[in-house]
Amino acid sequence: MQSPHDYLLYQGYEECHNEPYPSRHNKVNMGVALNQDCFSLEYILKTAPDIDFEEKMLKFLFDNGVKVPKIMAKDEKTLMIEFLRGGTLSEALREREKNGEDFSDIAAALKDWLVSFHKVCGSFPDGKITSAGDLSLTNFTFVSEGFVYRYDFEKEDYTGSFSDDLHTLAAEILMEPCGEEYKKAAAKALLGGDYDKEKLSGALSRLGGETGLADLG
Ligand SMILES: Nc1ncnc2c1ncn2[C@@H]1O[C@H](COP(=O)(O)OP(=O)(O)O)[C@@H](O)[C@H]1O
Ligand SMILES: [Mg+2]
User: Fold this and answer.
1) Cys-Cys crosslink for 148: which of 54, 66, 80, 109, Cβ 3.0 to 4.6 Å?
2) Closest ligand by atom to 136 CA
3) Distance between CA atoms of 203 and 208, rounded to whole angstroms?
4) Are 123 and 156 in contact (CB under 8 A)?
């Protein structure tokens, strides 16, 4: 695969803007390049120690129809991936609450994403995967066509089940700095008939959250 530098060069683009994104352990930058006709190309450059694993996961999921950003280029430690406009689900949740808008369409799209992941994760060729790993809402985005996409697949614990992941996602929603009523309604919309109070309480406790929030009423 071409390096990010060669990718831009051979497509006739020149980098014109580069902005760091908040990242806990890695280097994540959003880049914009321009070509002679003033067409702009937006991308993410992510530098991480286990980038080969992330590349394998992204490629496997993309090839199996799970919504993740497309890989454009790679060198030893850096992946260049498609930039997904839309902001994180953490931002979307707070934005929707501020505007007095319902979260249930995003919750439904998030559940669809999780279902699509669990349909295929058992056939990942490079290790046993039974969970979607780090389900922080900062690892998801809602794009304008109404789908949720996921980025960030570092090498970590990928054991669990669909139901575990669904309750962890609901716990992630409940941990966000939003009004209790609003986030409980969002968690309820996500869980639907799968809601299990004990499981939600366990997920909240694992994330260091307040277990009392598990009572969705
Ligand atoms: N493909 C992408 N499109 C848009 N934004 C992205 C993309 N990948 C990452 N980001 C942004 O960069 C942040 C950090 O990237 P991420 O891969 O989650 O790394 P980490 O969690 O290790 O810092 C994300 O929370 C998101 O805001
Ligand atoms: Mg992340």
Assistant:
1) 109
2) 2
3) 9
4) no
Please work out whether the CB of residue 46 comes within 6 Å of at least one atom of ligand 1: yes
Nearest to 149 by CA among 82, 195, 103: 82
Q: What share of the chain is helix, strand, coil (3-state, %, to 5)?
A: 45, 20, 35
Cβ contacts of 126 within 8 Å, gap of 6 or more? 53, 56, 60
34 Cα: distance to centroid of ligand 1 (angstroms): 22
Ligand 1 and 119: CB distance under 6 A: no
Domain annotation for the chain: domains and CATH numbers: 15-82 (3.30.200), 86-208 (1.10.510)
Q: Is the Cβ atom of 44 under 6 angstroms away from ligand 1?
A: yes
pLDDT in tens, the chain (217 residues): 899 999 999 999 999 999 999 888 899 999 999 999 999 999 999 999 999 999 999 999 999 999 999 999 999 999 999 999 999 999 999 999 999 999 999 999 999 999 999 999 999 999 899 999 999 999 999 998 899 999 999 999 999 999 999 999 999 999 999 999 999 999 999 999 999 999 999 999 999 999 999 999 8
What is the number of the ligand 1 atom nearest to the C-alpha of 86?
A: 4
